[in-house]
Write a structure and sequence with these properties.
By secondary structure, the protein is an alpha/beta fold. It has 2 domains: 174 residues, Medium-chain alcohol dehydrogenases, catalytic domain (Quinone Oxidoreductase, Chain A, domain 1, Alpha-Beta Complex), CATH 3.90.180.10; 139 residues, NAD(P)-binding Rossmann-like Domain (Rossmann fold), CATH 3.40.50.720. The chain contains 11 helices and 17 strands. The strands form 4 sheets. Strands 3, 4, 5, 8, 9, 16 and 17 form a 7-stranded mixed sheet that branches. The protein has a 6-stranded parallel sheet with strand order 12-11-10-13-14-15, sandwiched between helices. It has a two-stranded antiparallel ribbon with strand order 1-2. Helix 4 crosses helix 5, helix 4 packs across helix 10 and helix 7 packs parallel to helix 8. The two termini are 22 Å apart.
């Protein structure tokens, strides 16, 4: 099979690899689309990963090609999305079903081979059926959409009429805005410094989308809330300044969610820290998403049902669909900031659009 293989930091090659064989309770998935996560760029070009060589890619959907021994819940031809975190099943977190907090997890695309390839093997317990009416392109975005939902759920979700401010209008920020709107939040306010992202937000119906260099977030939020501040502030950019802005915009007893991967150290001014204390602002960390094998109210099942019902609109976020053979060039362009990219989907060369 063809794959993008990372041999060392910044050494990624398009080459032939053996098709992996599914073991007992595993499934071979023919990849249809795999999204490029913001974490993939530093993983490939600067930070590296846990072992080399490695095939990256963890946001994907595809079709079951072959099943290993003991697999009865899926069959060849089934359309599936795949939860990339492979939990140990033996630690205290796994005992409670909190797989995202597993103490000894494996991970497709960073610790074991992922889906920047024609095929990938995954445990059968990590597969979800893609509902009718949901394309495989949309299904490949289940992972970031579930991450966005999990971030809001970490803060208790949001109630009808609550103000939600989102700092960073990338794919996850834009999806989080849709979740907040679906929960009844109003207004939903987005900030970014990239005009194309703000235009995309407005195209999705978010009229309160502001350039943070031209409109001071604290002043905007104050003007929309009679000076009270936002109920929920979601930091989705991973930039020190946006975290400070998110904290500054939270109202008394407000909730701040730290979602963006940090790009640098953050120093809190004493006055801001004092205000957070006096206003008794709640600060939540979030990572990944909740997944369940048998129940249907976890972040992943909820996401797929929301896409199927039209509650969540993911296709407008897709700006690039790139054949595997040309993906390295696109990854370099993303790293160098050559052009505007929202969600990039990599697909095998022969994959037909669905």
């Amino acid at each position: 099979m063809k794959a993008l293989v990372l041999h060392a930091v910044a050494d990624v090659r398009y080459e032939d690899m053996p098709v992996p064989e599914p073991k007992a309770d595993e499934v071979l998935v023919r990849v249809a689309y795999c999204g490029v996560c913001g974490s993939d760029i530093p993983r490939i070009f600067s930070k590296g990963t846990y072992r080399f060589p490695l095939i990256c890619g963890h946001e994907f959907a595809g079709v079951v090609e072959r099943c290993g021994e003991g697999v009865v819940r899926f069959a060849p031809g089934d359309r599936v999305a795949v939860f990339p975190l492979i939990w140990c099943g033996r630690c205290a977190a796994c005992e409670k079903g909190k797989y995202v907090q597993c103490e000894s997890y494996d991970y497709l695309g960073s610790r074991r081979d992922g889906a920047f390839a024609e095929y990938v093997v995954a445990p059968v317990r990590n597969l979800l059926r893609v509902p009718d009416g949901v394309s495989l392109q949309e299904a490949a975005m289940t992972e970031p959409a579930a991450v966005a939902l999990h971030a809001l759920r970490r803060a208790g979700g949001c109630q009808p009429g609550e103000t939600v401010a989102i700092f960073g209008a990338g794919p996850i920020g834009l999806i989080a805005a849709q979740w907040a709107r679906a929960m009844g939040a109003s207004p939903v306010v987005l900030f970014d410094i990239v005009e194309e992202k703000l235009a995309m937000a407005k195209g999705l119906g978010f009229v309160h989308a502001y350039h943070a260099a031209h409109h001071t977030p604290e002043e905007v939020v104050a003007s929309l809330t009679e000076g009270q501040g936002a109920h929920v502030c979601l930091e989705a950019a991973g930039v020190p300044q946006t975290l400070l802005q998110a904290c500054a915009c939270a109202r008394r007893s407000g909730r701040v969610v730290v979602l963006g991967n940090p790009s640098a150290d953050v120093t809190f001014p004493a006055n801001l820290l004092s205000q957070l204390m006096r206003r008794e602002v709640n600060l939540y960390g979030t990572w990944n998403s909740e997944y369940a094998v048998y129940s249907a109210d976890d972040d992943w099942h909820t996401t797929l049902q929301a896409v199927a019902s039209g509650q969540l609109n993911l296709k407008p976020l897709i700006t690039h669909r790139v054949p595997l053979s040309r993906a390295i060039q696109t990854l370099h362009a993303m790293r160098e900031g050559k052009g505007f990219f929202c969600k990039v989907l990599i697909h095998p060369d022969e994959q037909e659009e669905d």
